[in-house]
Amino acid sequence: MSGFARVACCGAPRDLGLDQGRACAAEIAALLGASTRSAFARALAALRPPRAADREILRDTQRFFPHMAERSAGLARGARAPRLALAALSTLAERAPADALRVVRTVRGPCVARALPTGVLAVLRESAPDTDYRSLELVGLASVAPFVGVNQYGLAVGAVLSGARAGDCAAPATLLAQDCLQRFDRVEKALEWLERRPAGGRAQFALADAFGAAAGYEIDGDARKRIEPSGAPLSPSTAERCCVVAADPSARTLGWTFADGSMGEAGIS
Predict the structure, then answer these.
(1) For each of the chain's 269 residues, which pLDDT tens digit applies?
(2) Strand ordering across the sheet containing 253-258
(3) How far apart are CA 172 and CA 217, in angstroms?
(4) What's the pLDDT score for residue 155?
(5) Which of 181, 232, 184, 223 is CA-nearest to residue 204?
(6) Exposed, middle or buried by CB within 10 Å (0-12, 13-18, 19+), for 103?
(7) Spatial distance between the Cα atoms of 172 and 24, rounded to a whole number of angstroms
(8) Distance of CA 183 to the CA centre of its chain
(9) Is the Cβ–Cβ distance between 148 and 245 less than 8 Å?
(10) Which regions of the chain does DSSP assign to beta strands (E)?
(11) What does the radius of gyration of the chain's CA atoms come to, in whole angstroms?
């Protein structure tokens, strides 16, 4: 493997999701087909909440993340797949240890690095919303929330879902990463959003901007706190990590390195 397929998404929130769903429909169908086989089926079954919790997740996503809810609906429609099945695939892809995300210091300034576990299928999604900032993100095939991304003004954000639902809000906190990419150009503005917006679950964020600022943030249900971002490099060479992707605020690019040594880079058009 030497790179990721690139998907162009533009327009209103539902159109952004439609573009992603149509482009990834065949791969999503293959993933859903694989979910009938043993190991994957058990993983999905463990993630599926009770029907009442399904309704809570949908309700809170629509209430607090209307743009992301519209994207999700468009993605499901474009892929011709059930929304609940895509939500399970998304949660499985986003789940990772907190140490899979960090800020890495380089000669050009801080970058946000995210390690992908083996087996996760991802695409480069270029988002061009009608009224918000353009951004380039690495996302799971069936995911709205990005693993890591950078926007046209040089804000880089990465997120890891590290635990199950916690707190009063059922909407997953990782949705906040795309919110920040669409709205902000600086770390401090994004941190204010992370501090104030309702979201649930346990998640870690790493942020950096083109002005040299960097920060970490942790959400554990209703508990929020800023954390010191790790500056240690990530390696894709372990058995659990197939790839490391770095968002460079200065260059407005995503660069990646696979365990076999192959590398690549892409920027915002």
Answers:
(1) 468 999 999 999 999 999 999 999 999 998 887 654 445 545 555 555 445 566 677 788 888 999 999 999 999 999 998 887 787 778 777 778 888 899 998 888 999 999 988 778 899 999 999 999 999 999 999 999 999 999 999 999 999 988 765 567 888 899 999 999 999 999 999 999 999 998 888 899 999 999 999 999 999 888 899 998 877 777 776 656 789 999 999 999 999 999 888 899 999 98
(2) 101-106, 109-117, 241-248, 253-258, 263-267
(3) 15
(4) 98
(5) 223
(6) buried
(7) 22
(8) 16
(9) yes
(10) 6-11, 101-106, 109-117, 122-129, 135-140, 148-151, 156-163, 202-208, 214-220, 223-227, 241-248, 253-258, 263-267
(11) 17
User: Residue type for 205, please?
Assistant: F
pTM exceeds 0.85: yes
Each residue's pLDDT tens digit, 131-161: 999 999 999 999 999 999 999 999 999 999 8
CA separation (Å) from 193 to 74, 81, 179? 25, 32, 9
Burial of 223 per CB tally in 10 Å (0-12, 13-18, 19+) = exposed
C-alpha count within 13 angstroms, C-beta hemisphere, residue 10: 3
Q: Which amino acid is at 227?
A: I
Tokens of 158: 């990465």
In angstroms, the CA 14 to CA 39 distance is 33
How buried is residue 217: exposed, middle or buried, by Cβ count under 10 Å (0-12/13-18/19+)? buried
For residues 138 and 113, the answer to whether their CB atoms sit within 8 Å is no
Please measure the distance between the N-terminal and C-terminal CA atoms of the chain and give it in whole angstroms.
Answer: 23
Which residues are CB-contacts of 133 (< 8 A; sequence separation ≥ 6)? Answer: 151, 152, 153, 181, 182, 183, 184, 185
- Among 249, 195, 186, which Cα is nearest to 217's? 195
Instruction: Using DSSP bridges, classify how beta strands 6-11 and 122-129 pair: parallel, antiparallel or unpaired.
Output: parallel
Under DSSP, is residue 255 helix (H, G, I), strand (E, B) or coil?
strand
